[in-house]
Amino acid sequence: MEPTTTLDIRYSDPGAVPTPWSEARELLERAETYWLTTVRADGRPHVTPLLAVWRDAALHFCTGPEEQKARNLEHERRCALTTGTNALHEGLDLVVEGRAERVTDPGRLKDLAAAWEAKYGPGWRFGVGDGVFTHEAGGEALVFALVPGKVLGFAKGSYAQTRWSF
């Protein structure tokens, strides 16, 4: 399903055009580092870098069950994943907002494990346990899918703010 695309002229240069969803989706697929924003139980924000893969119209990420982001997602599944560039005058930054849902299906986990290794190399080879990723170094990781509800794109150079609604 293609999202509805709108240009926010309040934050865009005169004559700017919206960024095509295909360009944003490609960046979500190829980006290496993402920033996850969750909310702690007391309402304070928590932001941390992580790796993710785009698969089946969602960004997927994993975390140890004892990590702060996992504890945050226990009580509040709404979150945001951000990626892009640190450059001021070029590139595209993206903010993906939605609700993170656990992935526990063994078939999906195997597919995602293969996607992680294909994207990040053999150091990111996961096995599949009972509803989790496993790693030869030990430990388990919970896997989440963030299906976008809204994505904001911030094009730089010719500045344009695009919103994709799903």
UniProtKB/TrEMBL annotation:
GO terms for molecular function: coenzyme F420 binding; oxidoreductase activity, acting on the CH-CH group of donors. Keywords: Oxidoreductase. The keyword Oxidoreductase applies. InterPro entries: F420H2_bilvrd_red/Heme_oxyg, Pyridox_Oxase_N, Split_barrel_FMN-bd. Residues 23-121 form the Pyridoxamine 5'-phosphate oxidase N-terminal domain. One of its GO terms (cellular component) is cytosol. PANTHER family: HEME OXYGENASE HI_0854-RELATED (PTHR35176), PYRIDOXAMINE 5'-PHOSPHATE OXIDASE-RELATED FMN-BINDING (PTHR35176:SF4). This is Pyridoxamine 5'-phosphate oxidase. It comes from Nonomuraea wenchangensis. The lineage of its organism: Bacteria, Bacillati, Actinomycetota, Actinomycetes, Streptosporangiales.
